[in-house]
Every structure is written in structure tokens, then in C-alpha cells.
Write a structure and sequence with these properties.
523 residues; 64% helix; 3 domains; five-stranded mixed β-sheet; two-stranded antiparallel sheet
Length: 523
């Protein structure tokens, strides 16, 4: 019986393989490209990356990145180069800024397909790609104008190359692993090297092949390839900027993040367990089923390697002091393959379709939940942002998620279609709902006033500053460099409505839901 056939449904045949391709391509499009331009950039991360890129193009300086007039030492250079290339070709807009991540995400899923096809079979490979491209956490992060999609692509490339070297031998896989680690190091730093080297060392030692690991890890040409990719920019930025980047990036944004919580991003040791239950929707049940019979899984080289990869990342970031949901994504790739391998192990239709039914039901009820929460919010700025929340959840929202909820419940009982096809179709529905409704609604609530203020400030002759706000996307829409500081008399400030009480005299140039653009006349 095909791996993806419902015991109560017809087996999948070769014709179905073609339809799996259709589903895979549809998942890539809806997951990463559909409505990519349809909502404002999110602060803080999308705004920060995008403004640093805009500033790079404005300055004509492709070596260093700046934000609000200060050096930005958060990340290495590669994602900014990719965004700059996209913006140069397509203009400064949301689509161009997000396109490198969307392409990297699609490449990430295609890499999963190619690897799984090589080590397993074609249907499993397509299923793994479909699962990855229709998982809610990946769809949200994978289309963002940030570095994580590219990093996951390179980590996956390195990890796949390492396993193929273990299985097949040959230096070409060693060289590919070093190239991927080098590109990952240029994207987000040491994590792109730590994960592949640590996981592979543990795996090779467990398999009694530690000498093979040493030969591969210290392959002279592999090391040269890595250094050729990494050293030119790292040396150039250090030569020009001094030790500031090395200290800021390696010590503050890597070591210190591990040792101390940064920007209040902390959490308990089990932080990523509930995160996984949410970010893996609508496949949460399939993920949980993949962890059953772990002892048997570890006996198999491939499954043992995939589980070790995931568990190492889970342990590493659970122990880290700074915790953010997307950190677990560095170990989520192997889960897609494991889930595809064991998709038919979920025998209960109720348990399989309960997570998507709950997801769609929660989204259907979201407007009402916001209305219930709003009276209990005591932050004036957040209250102002929520003042017109109902207009972001129109009839289409309710109709779409009502139909999706009914479909998920119906699939619990339907026996005419293979369960894999039903869950994949719900994944596509989720993609459309997230990209076409959820993200635009969230951006409308959170970002619309900032975007409109930026557009209003674009043609002002005055000096514009940002005061008591931290929204770098404003600079993108204003298309100007803005400092974060207290305004002087005669300057224009973008700030919160409640900041006006600190001024003696002012002229309001723009006001929308708690965000104002104001000319300071007197303190």
C-alpha cells in the first residue's frame, strides 16, 4: 500500500504522483509568493532589515549596514546584498524586499524534495516538501524580509550533504557542506557552522566512524572554500570599522544571547514545546506521531540522523537564555521528512484533522476574541491601534474561515479521499488564509499608521526624527534616513499621540490611531 493511502481510500498511483507535483507547486506559490506585496512591512525585524538595505543603497556603501544613523551589528551581510539586488531590479517595495526570502524558502523546500527523493522515494519527497510549504510557522517566517529563510536553506544544504557523505562517501559532499556553512555564516553567523558540525560529530561517533568525521571536518579544500566565502567580507568590515562589528556581533548578538536574555526574550526550559504545537499546524498530530517508537527510529541511519538534528537544536536553544519562536526552525527541516515517512501512521481521522479544525475555528473567532480582550488593555497606544479593529475582519474573513472550519470537520468523517490529500488540501487553504487574510489584518492593525505616517513625511522639507517609537519601517515609506532622538524646535517628529503632552506648542501634520507626525514649535 502506498505510504500516503488512507486504509479506507484507494491507493495512490502514478497519476497521483503528478497531482502531488501540482500540490507541491501550489504549496510553494501560496506559501511564499501569493500576496507577498499585499501588506506593510512588520516592525521590528522586517523594518530593520529593510531599512538597513535601503540605507545601504542610499549611501552606496555595500560593506556595512546602518540603522537610524548607527552601525547595525546584528547580522552579517549576505541578506542585505540579496535584498539590495532585488530592490535595484524591482524598486523599493514590499515585494522586492521579501522576494529573497521567498526564493530562499522555495529553494529550501526544493532541497528537501531533492534530498528525500535521493534517500527514499519520490512520493515521500513530494510529501515532505508539501508539508514544509504548508506549515503555518514556515509560511509566516519564510516570506518575511529577514535572514531566517536563507539561513535555513544553507543549514539544510549542509546537513543533507553531510548525511550523503556518510552514506555514499566522496569529497563532493564535503565541499558542498563547507560551501553551505560558509554562505550560512555570511547570513547569520556561527549557528550555521555549530549545528552541522556538532550534529555530525555526535552522529559519526555513535556510528563508530569518528575518524571519517575528522577527515571530512578537516578537509583542506573544504576549509579553503569556507574561508574564501567568509573571510573577504569579515576582514574588510573589521579593517574599516575596527573591532566594533566583531565585538558587537560575536559577543553581544551570539554569545550574550546564549548566556543572557536579550530584549526580554526569555522563557522556561520547555519554551519550545508549546511553540512546536503551534508552528507545526496543521500537522501537529503527524509531528507528535513521528516521535513514537523513538528507539526503533534511531536504529535506522536516516531517521536517527534526522532525530538527532532536531533534538540537538531543541536542546541547544532550550538551554539558551534568549528564546524566540523561530530559533526552533533551524531544527525543523528533519521533521518534515520524518512526518512524510510516517504520515500513514496516524490512524485516527479525528486526531489528524482536529488541529486544522481548531486552527480555522480560532481564526474564525479571532475578531470576537480581540473585542473581548480590548476592554482589558491598559496601554493607550495599543488601544488606539485597536480602535478600528473590526474593519480588518470583514465578511470575507468570516466566510473563508467558516468554510475552512466546516471542511476540516467534514474531512474527519469523509472516507472517499486519501487522508494525505485531505490534510494537504487543508494546508493549501491555510496558506491562502494566512497570506491573504491573517497577515494583512495583522499588518493593518499594527503597521498601517506607521506606513501612512511615512508616506506623509516623504516630501516634507523638514528634518524628521523618530521620538519614543522604534519602527524602522517608517524610514522605508518615508524614503529617508531618520534618527531616533528627541526633536528640536522646528523639526518634525513621528511619535505616539500621548507624547504631545510633553510639548508646549506643536502643529499636527498627520494623525492616525495613536501615531502622529508633528512639527515641534516650542518645548
Amino acid at each position: 500500500m502506498s505510504r500516503f493511502a488512507d486504509p479506507l481510500s484507494p491507493d495512490l498511483d502514478q497519476l497521483s504522483l503528478r497531482w502531488l507535483w501540482v500540490l507541491f507547486l501550489a504549496a510553494l506559490f501560496t506559501g511564499f509568493f501569493y500576496n507577498l506585496h499585499g501588506f506593510a512591512l512588520f516592525d521590528l525585524d522586517e523594518g530593520a532589515f529593510s531599512e538597513a538595505t535601503r540605507n545601504m543603497l542610499e549611501r552606496g556603501d555595500f560593506l556595512a549596514t546602518y540603522l537610524f544613523g548607527e552601525p547595525r551589528y546584528d547580522k552579517p551581510i549576505l541578506i542585505y546584498w540579496l535584498q539590495a539586488l532585488s530592490v535595484s531590479a524591482l524598486g523599493l517595495n514590499e515585494f522586492a524586499l521579501r522576494l529573497p526570502s521567498a526564493l530562499a524558502s522555495a529553494g529550501w523546500m526544493l532541497l528537501i524534495w531533492a534530498f528525500t527523493r535521493r534517500v527514499l522515494d519520490h512520493p515521500t519527497a513530494l510529501a515532505a516538501g508539501i508539508i514544509g510549504a504548508t506549515t503555518i510557522g514556515i509560511v509566516i517566517v519564510g516570506r518575511g524580509a529577514i535572514a531566517d529563510a536563507a539561513l535555513n536553506l544553507f543549514i539544510a544544504g549542509a546537513m543533507f550533504a553531510i548525511f550523503l557523505h556518510f552514506r555514499e562517501g566522496g569529497n563532493r559532499w564535503v565541499y558542498l557542506a563547507f560551501v553551505c556553512m560558509g554562505l550560512g555564516f555570511l547570513t547569520k553567523g556561527p549557528v550555521a557552522v555549530v549545528i552541522p558540525l556538532a550534529v555530525s560529530l555526535i552522529f559519526y561517533v555513535l556510528k563508530g566512524r569518528w575518524r571519517d568525521w575528522l577527515r571530512a571536518a578537516f578537509n583542506p579544500l573544504g576549509i579553503v572554500l569556507f574561508l574564501l566565502l567568509v573571510l573577504p567580507w569579515y576582514l574588510a568590515i573589521t579593517w574599516r570599522e575596527g573591532p566594533g562589528f566583531l565585538l558587537g556581533f560575536f559577543l553581544e548578538h551570539n554569545l550574550q544571547r546564549f548566556l543572557e536574555p536579550m530584549e526580554s526574550h526569555s522563557g522556561p526550559l520547555y519554551y519550545y514545546l508549546p511553540v512546536l504545537l503551534v508552528v507545526m499546524l496543521p500537522y501537529t498530530t503527524v509531528m507528535l506521531r513521528s516521535f513514537v517508537e523513538l528507539k526503533d527510529r534511531f536504529r535506522d541511519d536516516l531517521q536517527g540522523y534526522l532525530l538527532l538534528w532536531f533534538l540537538f537544536v531543541l536542546a541547544l536553544f532550550s538551554l539558551a537564555s534568549t528564546k524566540l519562536p523561530h530559533y526552533i526552525f533551524y531544527g525543523i527541516t528533519p521533521l518534515f521528512i520524518l512526518m512524510a515517512m510516517h504520515l500513514d501512521a496516524v490512524r485516527s481521522r479525528f486526531l489528524l484533522f482536529l488541529p486544522p479544525a481548531l486552527l480555522f475555528g480560532a481564526l474564525l473567532a479571532l475578531p470576537e476574541l480581540v473585542g473581548l480582550i480590548k476592554p482589558h488593555v491598559d496601554d493607550d497606544f495599543i488601544l488606539a491601534l485597536l480602535s478600528d479593529y473590526q474593519q480588518h475582519f470583514g465578511p470575507l474573513w468570516h466566510a473563508f474561515f467558516a468554510i475552512a472550519t466546516v471542511a476540516a470537520v467534514f474531512f474527519m468523517f469523509d472516507r472517499r479521499m486519501a487522508r494525505a490529500w485531505r490534510i494537504f488540501l487543508l494546508g493549501l487553504v491555510m496558506n491562502v488564509g494566512v497570506a491573504g487574510l491573517l497577515l494583512p489584518a495583522a499588518a493593518g492593525l499594527q503597521q498601517a499608521p506607521i506606513k501612512e505616517a511615512g508616506l506623509a513625511a516623504r516630501d516634507l522639507p523638514d528634518t524628521v526624527v523618530m521620538w519614543r517609537l522604534h519602527n524602522p519601517s517608517f524610514n522605508i515609506y518615508a524614503q529617508r534616513s531618520v534618527e531616533r532622538r528627541e526633536p528640536e524646535v522646528g523639526e518634525v517628529a513621528v511619535t505616539k499621540q500621548d507624547s504631545l503632552e510633553r510639548l508646549e506648542d506643536y502643529e499636527i501634520l498627520f494623525s492616525q490611531r495613536g501615531v502622529v507626525l508633528v512639527r515641534v514649535l516650542a518645548w
